[in-house]
Write a structure and sequence with these properties.
The chain contains nine helices and no strands. The protein has 206 residues and is mainly alpha-helical.
Length: 206
C-alpha cells in the first residue's frame, strides 16, 4: 500500500503542476527510491507510451490497483479532474494505511501474549508434568480426576508434539492458498472475519 501511495502522491503533484502524464511517469520511474516503485512506474510508462490511458494502464495491474481506484482514475481522465481524483485516492489510501498500522499495533500485544502462553504451556506439558508423574505415582495415593486429565493432556503433547506444532501452520497456509484460488472460499473467510468479536468491527471500519 505504501509503495502505491508514494507513486500516486508524486503523480498527483506532477499532474497538478501541469506535467504531462507520460513525462510524470518517466520522472517517477527515474527518481524511484525502491525497485517496486521503479518497476510500477516503468510499467505504467510503457503502457501509456504504447497508447493506453492511465486508467487502462492501471487496469493491467489488478493486484496493485483495485477496481474502485481504476474507475475513479478513468472518470478523472474523462472529466479533466485527474489531480482532484488522485488527491482523494491518496487521502483514502493514507487513511487505510494509518488504520492498518493502528490495527497491527492493537493486535501485536495479544499475539505476543498468546505466543508466550503457548510456549509456557508447551514447556509444562512436555517437560514438567512428565517429571511429576513419577512423583505422584510414588505417593501411592489416589490421583484426582483433574490431575489425571492433566496427565492425559501431557501425554498427548509428549507423543504428538510434532503434530501440535506442525499441523496449525500447515492448515493456516492451506486456508490462505485456498482463499487465494477460490473467490467463494475467500468470501466465506472474510465473512467469518467480520463476525469475530472485537476484531470484526475493526476490520469493517478499515
Amino acid at each position: 500500500r505504501r509503495e502505491v501511495l508514494g507513486v500516486l502522491f508524486q503523480l498527483e503533484m506532477l499532474v497538478r503542476a501541469g506535467v504531462p502524464i507520460l513525462d510524470s511517469l518517466a520522472d517517477l520511474r527515474d527518481a524511484a527510491e525502491t525497485p517496486a516503485s521503479r518497476d510500477l512506474a516503468g510499467s505504467l510508462f510503457e503502457k501509456v507510451e504504447a497508447g493506453a490511458t492511465l486508467g487502462e494502464a492501471m487496469a493491467g495491474f489488478p493486484a496493485v490497483f483495485n477496481e474502485t481506484v481504476i474507475s475513479l482514475i478513468r472518470s478523472g481522465e474523462v472529466t479533466g479532474q485527474l489531480p482532484e481524483v488522485l488527491k482523494e485516492i491518496v487521502r483514502s489510501l493514507r487513511w487505510q494505511d494509518e488504520m492498518a498500522a493502528q490495527t497491527k499495533k492493537l493486535l501485536a500485544y495479544p499475539l505476543f501474549v498468546m505466543v508466550v502462553l503457548g510456549g509456557v504451556v508447551s514447556f509444562l506439558m512436555i517437560y514438567l508434568v512428565p517429571q511429576l508423574i513419577g512423583f505422584l505415582t510414588n505417593l501411592g495415593q489416589g490421583i484426582p480426576f483433574q490431575t489425571r486429565l492433566l496427565i492425559a493432556v501431557s501425554g498427548i503433547f509428549v507423543n504428538y508434539w510434532w503434530a501440535i506444532f506442525s499441523v496449525p501452520p500447515v492448515l493456516f497456509a492451506a486456508v490462505l492458498s485456498l482463499s487465494a484460488a477460490s473467490p467463494a472460499v475467500r468470501f466465506r473467510l472474510h465473512d467469518w472475519q467480520m463476525r469475530v468479536p472485537v476484531i470484526g468491527p475493526v476490520l469493517k471500519k478499515m
